[in-house]
Records
---
Amino acid sequence: MRSKALPLLFPLFLLPMSAFSQDDVIYDEALVPAYTLPAPLLFEDGSPVRTPEDWRKRRAELLDLFAKHVYGRTPVGRPDTMRFEPRKRVEGFLGGKATLEEIRIHFSEGADGPFLDLLVVKPSQVPAGGVPTFVGLNFTGNHGVHPSPEITITESWVRARKDEIETGQVVDHRATEKSRGNQASRWPLERIVDAGAALATFYYGDIDPDYDDGFENGIHALFGKPGPDEWGSIGAWAWGASRALDCLETDPTIDKGRVAVMGHSRLGKTALWAGAQDERFAMVISNNSGCGGAALSRRRFGERVERINTSFPHWFADTFLRYNENEAALPVDQHQLVALAAPRLVYVASAVEDRWADPKGEFLAALHAAPVYELLGQKGLGTAEHPPLDTAVGDRVRYHIRSGKHDVTDYDWEQYLKAIHSL
Ligand code: GTR
């Protein structure tokens, strides 16, 4: 199918750009500016992308544009010095139905360099061919995904929210026993294992602690301070997801053809960028990823480019700053990031109360990624209408908007489990 620039006719309320300041958050569709999305199926020179072979070239062009202008280039692949150190194995986990493994992925030769601690929980009974597996990035440490004392508490620096300090879950940026299971509602291990799938999760701060320190620590310190168009934290976390997959590839009980990358919010942005770059991921899940994730930047609804670059200067490449209050100049928009998952399954999930993340913008990105899927002989969303609440739609591009707030819930997991089993 041929595509051309997509003129989208949204209510035109033309305010001069300078009238927007960081404090003028748009929560009213009438204030969304008119915009034209860059076409996924047009090369930068304006010529059409007509065949799957053309798409491979266009894909490379788009990856390069996202690297240069948004997330920064990833300067290293899999390091030669990387090694996997099994540290723990527990049979009969979760009342006998699961096996727990902890593996430390070292990125440099000595034991002092940066590492990633991977927690793998899989069903005790593994069919021939292995289990489908979610690589999920977590916010508080692997011990946060379940209260079991079998899970090792992270040694890494952790962020400290006020409530985590007050309840003694975090002391001096180190996690304590009290933080066990503090993210458990987002990681229904029993449900995942009962559905015959595995979870491989790691703490994103192992790769890069989530604060703006001029890239003195984490993986950036090992590979050198990034240049203005090199990886920020999202790029680094995405790289970590690929290294987790390197490790899983050595495990015969994992079905290599059915590994999904999954993240919520800033880690949903990360999952999209990881899946865009690393085609070994058979499925890409963006849970409430918002600005810099699945939401279209040009809509400027909820969080927008200037705000995210100001609040989190370390997440993106410095080059992304050029687009503060200047989204129309971006050579890409986020539907093209979603399209970079094609022809693999991509799942974009929104929550109705999560207006900061612009659920409609997330839906439209999924919708406008579909032409690429169709070119590759796959079905996209199957509807141009934003679906009703709690109704999953789509085929290789899936979407739902669930009731409730910015979070990961059982409803979301139910859909992700169905999706991974459809592969
Ligand atoms: C918010 C940020 C969002 C989202 C979220 C999260 O403060 O504005 O872009 O990433 O954090 O990751 O929880």
---
Amino acid sequence: MNDNLASSAADLLARVDRVAVVTGAGVSAESGVPTFRGQDGLWRRYRAETLATPEAFERDPKLVWEWYDWRRGLIAPVEPNPGHQVLAVWQDLFAGFSLITQNVDGLHAKAGSRDVVELHGNIWKLRCTREGTVSEVRESPLPQLPPVCPSCGAFLRPHVVWFGESLDPAVLERAFRLSESCQAMLVIGTSSVVQPAASLPFAAARAGAKIVEINPEPTPLTPHTDVFLAGRSGEILPALDRLLRETR
Ligand code: BV8
């Protein structure tokens, strides 16, 4: 990571009260959770269109559930990494701090982050396809695939947003409101290709916020950022935290 850029990011953060953070799969990579589009990414080994869509679930609910049950088993034992931990501590460092995530792994909450805006749902929650009721089920592996609703017997589905499905309007509205009212936005560990999440930093910038991106690779967002910190969030966030505490 470039020390000058890190210092300018820390100086920028030291001058603001309201910070919004948007995270993607990259923030969980150092916990051992594979990303979607990376070299060993989840989409590499699986065809997204056969798994993370309502059509796939309609066609083959057992196959979709085998994928999600496998991912739940992968995520269950992992611990938050230092990147998650710094974000959890920062919620009490800034007067206004909000954390918006595309991730469904629940690791931000496990690290102690409160009131996380989960744009794409949560892999630990199941939703009845008939009644719409949502319950948290931590059992892994699940005893039966697809799982069925204990009260009506209909299939349960993962309480996540699939491609082609709309996000919860209230969740999306809150995410844009938080993006448009922050003074600085950190965009961490996302390829910035999935909509509407990828539009949040642009909404923040239009409202006057400075944008800091943390990613080992440049993304389509990078040319539009004020500071691009190339590297892994599990290393960069603790380094930023140390610099910030020297300046605040
Ligand atoms: C919708 C499900 C209305 C849960 C996911 C406008 C233009 C073009 C397309 C569209 C558009 N509007 C809608 C679309 C279609 C689609 C879309 O965006 N397609 C893309 C691919 C072009 N969007 C939708 O369908 C959305 N719905 O808009 O509703 C509508 C309805 C009908 C028709 C049209 C519109 C729903 C999107 C949600 C889909 N569900 N997940 C699950 O199974 O997980 S998306 C999936 O991708 C995950 O949620 C994930 O979070 C998300 C984004 O991926 P990333 O998090 O960015 O992960 P990725 O692997 O891509 O990148 C990781 C990054 O980390 C990399 O940059 C890497 O360099 C970096 N990294 C790696 N290691 C580290 C690191 N960074 C830091 N530290 C490290 N150590």
